[in-house]
Amino acid sequence: MPTQDNVRIAPPQGKLGVLIPGMGAVTSTFVAGVEAVKAGWAQPVGSLTQMATIRLGKRTEGRSPRIKDFVPLAGLDDLVIGGWDIFEDDIYEAALKAGVLDKSDLEKVKAPLAAIKPMKAVFDPEYVRRLHGSHVKEGGSKMDKAQALMQDIRDFQKNTGVSRMIMIWCGSTEVHHNPTEVHQTLEAFERGLAQNDPGIAPSQIYAYAALKMGVPHANGAPNLTCDVPAFSELARERQLPICGKDFKTGQTMMKTILSPGLKARMLGLRGWFSTNILGNRDGEVLDDPSAFKTKEETKLSVLEYILQPELYPQLYKDYYHMVRINYYPPRGDAKEGWDNIDIFGWMGYPMQIKIDFLCRDSILAAPIVLDLVLFLDLAQRAGMKGIQEWLSFYFKAPMTAPGLYPEHDIFIQLMKLKNTLRWMKGEDLITHLGLEYYD
Ligand SMILES: NC(=O)c1ccc[n+]([C@@H]2O[C@H](COP(=O)([O-])OP(=O)(O)OC[C@H]3O[C@@H](n4cnc5c(N)ncnc54)[C@H](O)[C@@H]3O)[C@@H](O)[C@H]2O)c1
User: Is any atom of ligand 1 closer than 6 Å to the C-beta of 251?
Assistant: First the structure.
């Protein structure tokens, strides 16, 4: 690890290409928001890179610059968006179908959105069973498909003149699958691509193409994608940052805000029942039990890690935790998430908390996409490689180095994120230690 003094961050010169497999609700909401902010009629609410400040030094120093003034990030005007989808809709049409944003807002950004047309996707109906699109690359082995994606990336760079690129998966959730032999080493993975190994998912073909082309990768869905040894190997070999998985929005965001508080006050938990209804395309995909299983795994593990039942058996042993997602078309993207939480306090007396979160999934996800794009680009320019745990803040199931457990507590995640930025710039880390008692 370099010391603070020798972290050199290359300046963000030129344009930054943002390559997105999956141009549905999240992507179109993200792009529309970036255009609205650029045009000056909307605020980038929810984005740390655009709105948050970072305290530096002692509280008495009064130094709290905005993050974007502290570290050299690409500007919104420098982003050039491209991507792939199994449907031919341009981003304007995709946004209309997703139904997240009002038509009157979309009209104001119609021109830049309609100009972004997806490239043909690499798709396998075995991995996303509920969707049937025809805008796909046909024939050839999985390696041929990876080569075709690499050619798309080259063409994108040539046509747009971007100087750097980032890939972020915003495609549908793929069915649950466990890592196999083919995912253990880069060599095995490349052999698997050539031999059409069924264990290689489309999202992994995109990620492979990105890393081979020197493009960092983030994964917004719960799919395995880069969370296997072959990709850690490739990322390190190519000196590239990677991160994932599954944008932390909605119910899980609330869970990782609330449960650290309950634990901080040593309040016990008997049960946490979470249920959701949603009616967008994501909900339709998750209606397939094998796709839901992928999501369920990332959603369930959160409490276990935060509450540490092995350390606090009197408070957290054997609590009941259930997560349900139901596809309910009338709701569209306006999801409703209910939580019933049975807690207990002093002398074991029971209490209940009810949450009814009328949330908008893509409205919560869009600023995460923006921050991940800008921070991954920063990481790349700062020479950081491999899994970027400091970006765990944005994920339901943060990827970690082998042997480490993921950190889910949103407040610890935020501290880690900000301390990483301080460290990159050679500022003192903030520990909140109060040594003034000895003055
Ligand atoms: N708050 C959120 O919305 C949120 C939070 C966490 C994770 N996610 C995940 O982000 C992803 C996107 O969510 P969304 O609401 O935009 O879903 P969406 O269904 O609106 O969009 C996904 C798009 O991916 C496309 N697609 C599927 N397979 C593809 C492939 N192989 N190549 C290219 N395109 C492909 C689909 O055609 C669709 O247009 C989902 O996996 C979802 O689970 C979303």
Answer: no
Q: Could you tell me the distance, in angstroms and rounded to a whole number, from the CA of residue 366 to the centre of ligand 1?
A: 12
CA-CA-CA-CA torsion sign (172, 175, 180, 182): negative
Pairing of strands 350-360, 334-344: antiparallel
86 lines ligand 1 (CB under 6 A): yes
Q: What is the pLDDT of residue 7?
A: 81
Q: Which CATH class is domain 4-247+363-424?
A: alpha beta
pLDDT in tens, 329-383: 998 878 899 999 999 999 999 999 999 999 998 999 999 999 999 999 999 999 9
Each residue's pLDDT tens digit, 240-282: 999 999 999 988 999 999 999 999 999 999 999 999 998 887 7
Q: Which of 26, 174, 175, 368 to mutate to test the pocket of ligand 1 (most atoms within 8 A of CB)?
A: 26
Contact (CB, 8 A) for 44 and 368: no
Q: How far is the CA of 171 from the centre of ligand 1 (A)?
A: 3
| Per-position DSSP letters for 239-297, written without gaps between them | T-EEEESSB--HHHHHHHHHHHHHHHTT-EEEEEEEEEEE-SHHHHHHTSHHHHHHHHH
Q: Are 339 and 274 in contact (CB under 8 A)?
A: yes
Could you name the CATH architecture of 251-359? 2-Layer Sandwich (3.30)
Query: What are the pLDDT digits (tens) for 191-203?
Result: 999 999 999 999 9
Say yes or no: CB of residue 362 within 6 Å of ligand 1. yes
21 lines ligand 1 (CB under 6 A): yes
Atom index in ligand 1 nearest the CA of residue 87 equals 37
Q: Which two tokens stand for residue 269?
A: 């938990």
Measured in Å, residue 283 CA sits from the centre of ligand 1 at 10
Sequence-distant (6+) residues with CB within 8 A of 280 are 25, 98, 99, 100, 332, 333, 335, 361, 362
> How far away, in angstroms, is 285 Cα from ligand 1 center?
9
Residue to mutate, 172, 203, 255, ligand 1, most ligand atoms under 8 Å from C-beta: 172
Within 8 A by CB and 6+ apart from 193, the residues are 141, 142, 143, 146, 200, 205, 208
Residues forming CATH 3.40.50.720 domain(s) in the chain: 4-247+363-424
Q: What is the location of CATH 3.30.360.10 in the chain?
A: 251-359
